[in-house]
Amino acid sequence: MEPPAAASRLPSFASQTNALLRKNLIFQKRNRKETIRLIIVPIYLCVLLSVLQRVINNVLDKPKYKCGCKCVNVDGAGPCQNVCGIQYSTLDQAGSCPIPNPPEWPTLLQVPRAEYRAIQDSSKLFTGLPDASCRKSQSCPASIPFTGANETLSTTVMQNLFTDSPLSNLSDYTSISSLLLGTDIPGTSTGFIEPAFVSDVPMYVIQSQCKARDPVTVRVTIDAINIQKEIKCVQGLPLWRNSSRTINEETFMGYRKGKIRGGINEIAMAYDFQDSNEKHFNVLAMYNSTHLNISYVPTPFGLLRLSRSLNAVSNAYLQFLQGQGSGTKMLLQFMKEMPKQVTHLTIDFSSLIGPLFFEWVVALLFPVMLTYLVYEKQHKLRTMMKMHGLGNGPYWTIYYAYFLILSTVYLVLFVIFGSLIGLNFFKTNDYGILFVFFFSFTNLQIVLSFVAAIFFSKVNTAQAIAYLYIFGSGLMAGSLIRNFLEGGKFPRHWITVLEIIPAFSLYRGLYDLSQYAIRASETGNPGMRWSDLNDHTNGMRDVLIIIIVEWLVLLPVAYYFDHASSVGHRSSPLSIIKRFLGKNPTWRRISINEIANNDVHVEMEKLDIIKEREIVDQVLQQRNSGYAVVCDDLKKVYHGKDGNRDKYAVRGLSLALPYGECLGILGPNGAGKSSFISMMIGFTKPTSGNAFVQDFSIHTDMENIYSSMGVCPQNDMLWEMLTGKEHLQFYGRLKNLNGSALDLAVEESLRSVNLLLSGAADKQVMKYSGGMKRRLSVAISLIGDAKVVYMDEPSTGLDPASRKNLWSAVKQAKQNRAIILTTHSMEEAEVLCDRLCIMVDGRLQCIGRPKELIARYGGYYVLTMTTSSEFEREVEDLVLKLSPNTRKVYHLSGTQKYELPKQEVRIADVFMAVENFKKRVEVQAWGLADTTMEDVFVKVATGAQSIDELS
């Protein structure tokens, strides 16, 4: 039968995108709760940041961190007035006070506490120090090791380091600042206040010898505030060392090793005079900033106190040159900060944790997009859409647009809501930069999700690895990029190389935005602007260039690999890459001679198979064959691995199938039926040979074949959240149906498989039984004007009534179609199929109409008789009298079954012989049947397998 005049035309790009868009909109409507939850994630996170920021602000707004105030009688009479200032503040409060006239502070040395000062050690280190008994009396000196190229000069300078003056001579602020003062408490982060003067701990005067250890109290006036300050004497003990290395070893071993033993040998300060002489002074000063050896916390006072150490040694060198009697001195009495306005202690929490936190927020979209893609891959829905005519272009267009819209809405809400609730990260930086940065990275992330989807076949695996990637790469980027940028020693061009990794480029951009936001909150200046991208310290321009270039490069690469891994190219990503490079390890063409050498078959081909091959040869010589399907010597070989033999799934199959015919393919498991169907639908590539569907080759024209092909796969490929009607509407649109024609086709399809009257049409597929899903899959394969339909065991799992309805639908549909059907039901094969072929071990064993096959391979009657066991011999004698060539095929407990050749017996003779036999012997039951299709199948399959074993 010829096909209808209006043959199926290839659906346009617009038709395909329209069908997929409508399907996705319905799917998202059903999945709207998940989508809404995803979109409100950034809003929730912004609220969380805002709450944390407010909590921090409330803590910082407490009086503990505000400038201290006191009610003071300014004029000595009347009520007191509330006066605020540094003189009324604690160390925590002083930093926020306005200081129009900063006080003068003497610079101090950092002196170890008495219980931690260096003492004699059992090792070769720490020689020249007192034993541990000095710690009990709190009299351990502050040790000052020194070295230099000229020991005499170095020793003389160190002798001039201290000025021995009685503590009783100390009277005022200026007198104490002229001495070498020290303290055993660390400095604060601001230089506006010296904690040694406002705390209760004593201060020290470092001298070569302490004549009296009793402390002296000195009155100090700072900004009209009178302070009583206790000052003690501590001995400064200079110790010569042979090298700076020895000093370093003592310092290191004394700190760490001493702490393990329960005591700490801490050194006050050290000097290396190097090559100093009478003409030039070159000294290396080492200072103590470990603060009781608890932790290393560098503060401005570390360097501030170093200035006193340098001043003391410089003054000692000057006295060495001029002589102590010259009266020449180099003094450093006071230091003071510049005036400042009132300040408020703030911490921009969102900008501080922003880079890592916001990286996770943005990257959270990656596993979401990857899940969408892998879900359709895992359930073979992409394959199903492809086989019904959906091209890669429409698929990419719709999914790329959907991901882009979802990501844009997600990030726009993130930025807008973050700005509305007052996060400086968004408020201070230019919105144009934020949009370009996030939009660029979103496009790159979409492309990366398409690339990653190639490597996964399970949703759970893809999700687990995706989340591990975003959290792990975020932590790694936060650790490396931040340390490299703030350390300043890592080459900047290598940082740029690291930014080729998407997670690192995202972190770098967020890091720069957060730094500009922090600076803006501290200084009041605006955040990042476009003009700032020209700054060499700003990495945003490089990041944008890297992201955009990566996106443009990976976009075609991702499209190619996605196409190569889709239907018709089922292979691993590694093999795809090798094929892209011109190497093809997974499949190769095999010549007929090679097949012959590996497959010795001793049986001559049957006449029906030879005739079918002749028809194929005649059809192939015509330009327009008029046949729906023509297979020309189709072969499929699965090459063995790890020393295993090759598997020959299909061996030279030749078929010609006209329109209006249903061809049934029978065969045992492993016969090659599914391999044949897979080649015809483009799921796998043939090893050799070719096939033509409506004169289109399966090698080069699968896109045209898909437009007029319907497939009912062996396993149902359905969306759980869509209804049966929505499935048919989607696939109908892919077949160029629309409007009233689509509605009519959907209604007829549902009615034909008994899904309309039962109300199942509007139920989601997740609520379907297995039989209902099977019927829906058949309806999908028949929707539209599909001229060739492949059905792989369509009635599996159906009850008898549903099976009958399904058969009626298939018989009605085959009037203008060619249907290829595989089944294990002989009844189904006889009812539906115009012709049947039997495959065994990849070969076509026979082909013809059911009655022809039964007549050809079933030339016998089957006689079944049940008697008592003692009459079994008489039954056998009876049958042998009817035909000497009778063959017994069954025998159990008095029941025997025999095959009687049709050419040797007549039915009337059998009935007459049995009636006469019943007069002599009690026959419990008997029957005579013609050969069934099942008998033919068993006979052909068993015979072919026996021949294969012999060969």
UniProtKB/TrEMBL annotation:
Keywords: ATP-binding, Membrane, Nucleotide-binding, Transmembrane, Transmembrane helix. The chain crosses the membrane at residues 352-375, 396-421, 433-457, 464-481, 493-511, 543-561. Residues 629-866 form the ABC transporter domain. Pfam families: ABC2_membrane_3, ABC_tran, ABCA12_C. GO terms for biological process: lipid transport. Gene3D superfamilies: P-loop containing nucleotide triphosphate hydrolases (3.40.50.300). GO terms for cellular component: membrane. It is a multi-pass membrane protein. GO terms for molecular function: ABC-type transporter activity; ATP binding; ATP hydrolysis activity; ATPase-coupled transmembrane transporter activity; lipid transporter activity. Belongs to the ABC transporter superfamily. ABCA family. CPR flippase (TC 3.A.1.211) subfamily. This is ABC transporter domain-containing protein. The gene is LOC100827653.
